[in-house]
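The step that takes the researchers longest sounds almost clerical: writing a folded protein down as plain text. Below is the pair of lines this work produces for a single protein:

——
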Amino acid sequence: MAAEGLVAERIPIASDHAGFEMKEKLKARLVALGYDVQDLGTNSAASTDYPDYAHAVSREVESGRAARGVLLCGTGLGMTYAANRHAHVRAAVAWAPEIAELARKHNDANVLAVPARFVSEQDAAAILDRFLNTAFEGGRHQPRVDKIELEGEK
């Protein structure tokens, strides 16, 4: 959340058709919390291809234009498969706040994937909040995170 006089963190968010309704709710929550939300689609519940949206958010994180991003689809799985193809992107599916917290603390996850068909609106909000408010612990976890990067990309 941005303090007075500071620039708000920009958070790109996207979903496929299965996550559209929940995306709209989480987008409103992010705005209410003071984030600069970049909605990269989809813009309706009409059938779409999840990789298009996963790549759009992941390019923002990969390039450094955004530090973190949020993706939604039915299970969260397809989004993470596509997102994790990008260098420096560590996307994690979180179905409970505790999973989001551990993904941040231990793995420095920078893209949250929400399984919209398997969590309630209340749970999705709690998952998002925990993702946003948990810092990476570093320490013993840093060498493990470093090993995630492909050898040729170091």
